Amino acid sequence: MPDSDANSAVPVDHPAFMLHAALDRLQADHPAIIELGELFAANGSELALVGGPVRDALLDRDLTDLDFATSAMPDETQRLLAQWGDAHWDIGKEFGTIGAARHARGGRPGITVEVTTYRSDVYDPSSRKPQVAFGDNLDGDLSRRDFTVNAMAVRLPELTFVDPYGGLTDLAAKVLRTPVVPEQSFDDDPLRMMRAARFVSQLGFGIEPVTAAALVEMADRIGIVSAERVRDELVKLLLGRHASRGLRILVESGLADAVLPELPALQLEVDEHHHHKDVYEHTLTVVDQAIDLETGADGPVPGPDLILRLAALLHDIGKPATRRFEPGGGVSFHHHEIVGAKLTTKRMRALRFDKDTIKQVARLVELHLRFHGYGDGEWTDSAVRRYVTDAGPLLERLHRLTRADCTTRNKRRAARLSAAYDDLEQRIADLAAREELAAIRPDLSGEQIMEILDVKPGPVVGEAYKFLLDLRLNEGPADYETARSRLLEWWQAQA
Fold it and tell me: Assuming Cys at both sites, which of 62, 315, 329, 474 could form a disulfide with 382, CB separation 3.0 to 4.6 Å?
């Protein structure tokens, strides 16, 4: 049975209850937007809260940045926002959008708003950027939005609810549907297909059948959208609580074939003897398990963590290229982590990720199998030091990726792997307490190396530094005299 309000027999997820509660909250918690509506009304202009903020208010989610639509042209909007806010900006003016911020006052937090002239986004088949056309009424503006749950509005200042496409009913039913025929909607802005997958991830909603069929029919149209916009939607999808469900939509619709082909490529045919698991299903499970291993804000990997989630998604993409059927019916994927790291770099570059994010994700993919050499628990202190040093600042994420990568249904094997990793983490903690593992450096600095060897800066100093670092990793810390003696021995051997 659905929950009910303590003073009513109406379920809390009934559309009427959702609307009543949302309007009450808007009036009580956001008086500044009522004031903004009064300002526009005095100017003879319409103003309405639209899209995501209306949806979130109905879902009783926190509202941060607020989006509005108006009949006013951008210049007029800018003038009005300058009166209302403490700061305003026109960076989106060519698209009809003016932003403003009002600082905290009267005990209420500050808010940021964006006000956009009624408009539509339309793609030319030969262009990767939307063309902007201004509209003249709210219903028309709402018809051009991606889904009915985002095509609702609240007129201000009177708080009149506007829902011409049944968004409230769909919201209560947790379903995604386009306001107009889906083929028209996706043709106008193909990125809306990616947004469908993103909202499945963020909200846990389903996609109604006609809209889902249009995704499949029009998936190729996503190719007209710039890599940067596709990347942004993929990031939002991955940061959602139901990321694996959103990823399934990308694959089942065919969108992934264009934007992330490495994912559907993991749907390898499982051999009749099941010598290897379904890599695609395994990957989605790893994503889910990695999300579950993220920490709170005070932990080492606060969720949602994009680096960890990308690494979980991409960790096995080297398997299709490295699969080999061995004599006797076995299947191997030798060095798939190395191949996967290279493919990760290539795909993330194509999606225009920044260099630092690419570097971190590729490194985690490269390292994700390193632990499996520890299965017998017989690593030397040197091997543990190298594990920590190679992971560097990614160590906590590597811990979680490695644990998430265990998806075996064999409970005994899973327990052994978990215990082995528990042991490795304890070894790391014990060594860290003795040796400050996170800051491992050679026992002599570059200046000391040059002084002892009587050399100037150059390649030989780097070679000596590397020798001392290997010595430190293999044997642990040494005092100055011991390090100096070993350095001189090495130097004599170079002659």
Answer: 474
